[in-house]
Amino acid sequence: MSDRLGLVLLNMGGPDSLEAVEPFLYNLFSDRELIRLPGGALLQKPFARLISRFRARHVRQLYDDIGGASPLREWTERQAAGIAARLGEQVRPFVAMRYWHPFADEALERMKTEGIDRAVVLSMYPHYTGATTGSSINDFRRRAAVVHPQLEYSLIEQWYDWPGYLDALAARVTAGLEQFHELLRDQVRILFSAHALPQKFIDRGDPYLRHVTATVEGVMQRVGHPHWTIAFQSRSGPVRWMEPDTVEVIRDYGRQGVESLLVVPISFVSDHIETLHEIDIQYRNLAFEHGIRHFHRAPSLNDGDDFLQAMAGLVRRHLEAWP
């Protein structure tokens, strides 16, 4: 048995070129744990093919606006390498994406080739939901059983209240506030924006909302600013979504005469399309259109030393409890 340990980071993935946008969307819409298209399992993939073709042109334009590709793979690989380096030279980093390369079976093949038969599998979604964390973990389990059945692995599925994570996120909020003139900071509205889920996920007992709320409360206990709220972004399709909508909150702030707004991406641990385009371009323009004169986004965690140290500490604690 090898004494080396694999560290596998699970994430959503994103297209690495404009040509990859449509197949990425197809993989995403094909996942019934994330989206249940009409017609049942039999028609999921045909509907996914139609929807991905229909949406690809618009989504390609969004990725073109931010450089032609998602940076999510690069950030996740840097996070994996950084966490592994802080754990010791016996730890080898791997990345397993759900909807685009490198897929779980690619990471598993590499571990098998390198003779690694023990691994910690870390979800990079801090807040658990069956739609993202659950889907990624189930996919990893299925592929591991086929590709590397000898692998012994242990899962870290959620860490929404891990103190080091809350400290790092609080530091990003403070850095965001420092972008405003000191005379404005007390009046800044802090808007924590998390990725929305269909309300039916929450109604059936998914803990995502509780986890997001606990994270924000933990962060604001550290920051101490009086004006903050939580909203949900990236809503699409004719279903009932979690509320309030980030777009509507920004509009309401404008109607209320709010002039200074800091948006904090709360369910994302690195920059990708939702931060670089949806917040930095779409929401910024929306804020200006509604009279909000000062708009900033808190920096993402990305590969910040404090965040990587926090995650290494999380893995270290997990290893202590794993026989």
Q: Main traits of this protein?
A:
323 residues; alpha/beta; Rossmann fold; 3 domains; four-stranded parallel sheet; 11 helices; 15% strand; globular
What does this molecule look like?
Pathway: Porphyrin-containing compound metabolism; protoheme biosynthesis; protoheme from protoporphyrin-IX: step 1/1. By secondary structure, the protein is an alpha/beta fold. It folds into three domains: 5-14 and 70-158, Rossmann fold (3-Layer(aba) Sandwich); 18-65, no CATH class; 163-297, Rossmann fold, CATH 3.40.50. Helices cover 49% and strands 15% of the residues. The chain is built from eleven helices and eight strands. The strands form two sheets. The chain has a four-stranded parallel beta sheet with strand order 2-1-3-4, sandwiched between helices. Strands 6-5-7-8 form a four-stranded parallel beta sheet, sandwiched between helices. The mean pLDDT is 96.
